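The data are set out underneath:

___
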Amino acid sequence: MSRIDKINSLLIQELAGLVAREISLENGLITVTYAECSPDLRYAKIGVSVLPDNFSGSAIKKLRKHNAAFAAVLKKKLNLKMIPKFNWVIDDREKNAAKIEEIINQPEF
């Protein structure tokens, strides 16, 4: 496992805990699904899944609002020279997989 893979996995674990504690979404759920750091570790794309889907916009706004606080907590907790800047995105992989599976399972005419 490369260094970036280890950092990605560590970011997923730590950010998932922070999101669960710090972000409240009334009747909704935010799950951190992946992290992809740039090779220079300056930026990280963080994928989140939001249920129900109609809360996606407000969830991303809340996550972006907490960027600085999350970075400060991670800087204290992790032994990294630099904490990457987070770019929060909605992870549509599960939804797309469900659509593909639905199409595959349709009866042929």
